[in-house]
Amino acid sequence: MSRIEAALAARGLGLPTPPTPIANFLPWRRHGALVFLAGQVNERDGTVTCIGKVGREFDIDAGRQAAQLCALNLLACLRLACDGDLDRVRACVRVGGFVNADPDFAFAPRVIDGASDLFVAVLGDAGRHARTAVGVATLPRGAAVEVDAIFEVD
């Protein structure tokens, strides 16, 4: 078990099965020491857990939980990129967060903290990253949140 998986287990979390892409793209692509991870929505076992808009159907806390699930999906895909060995992960470099938001909802950064907080919790200072968090009109399959990321690996 990697240090990341051990840190997740200590929080009562585990990695889900990596989601299957729904269109013509790869779940990850490596370039040198960087792994670019495609956006992941709040999906578990093929089912989107929160469908709708944050600020209308869901509050900030539900949005944060959705963002955390996106982060878990990203880590599951990262494990594939690392040939099953998450101990090869050196740092989270950048996170992009998208919140399917009511037009008047102004708290996308607080929602995406659900993903950011998880990366920092399992990687410590190496989990701190640059980030964008924006509200959008819609996301694939009606998901409430989508997150992408770039990691540095050995």
Word description of this protein:
The mean pLDDT is 97. The protein is globular and about 40 Å long. A hairpin with a 2-residue loop joins strand 3 and strand 4. The chain is α+β, with helices and mostly antiparallel strands.
Features of the shown structure:
154 residues, alpha+beta, 60s Ribosomal Protein L30, Chain: A, two-stranded antiparallel sheet, 7 strands, 29% strand, globular
Spatial strand arrangement across the major sheet: 1-2-7-5-6
CATH-wise, what's the superfamily? RutC-like
Contiguous low-pLDDT stretches (5 residues minimum) are none
Biggest sheet architecture: 5 strands, mixed
- Mean pLDDT, to the nearest integer, reads 97
Strand content: 25-35%
Fraction of residues in H or I helices: 25-40%
Helix and strand run:
HEEEEHEHEE
Q: Based on the coordinates given, report the CATH architecture.
A: 2-Layer Sandwich
CATH class: Alpha Beta
Number of domains: 1
Overall SS class = alpha+beta
Rg is 14 Å
What fold name stands as the CATH topology?
60s Ribosomal Protein L30, Chain: A
Termini distance? 17 Å
Write down the overall geometry.
globular
Number of strands: 7
Quick overview:
This protein has 154 residues and is an alpha+beta fold.
Strand and helix map with partners:
Blueprint: H1 3-10, E1 28-31, E2 34-41, E3 43-44, E4 47-48, H2 60-81, E5 89-100, H3 108-123, E6 130-136, E7 145-153
Parallel strand pairs: 5-6
Antiparallel strand pairs: 1-2, 2-7, 3-4, 5-7
Helix pairs in contact: 2-3
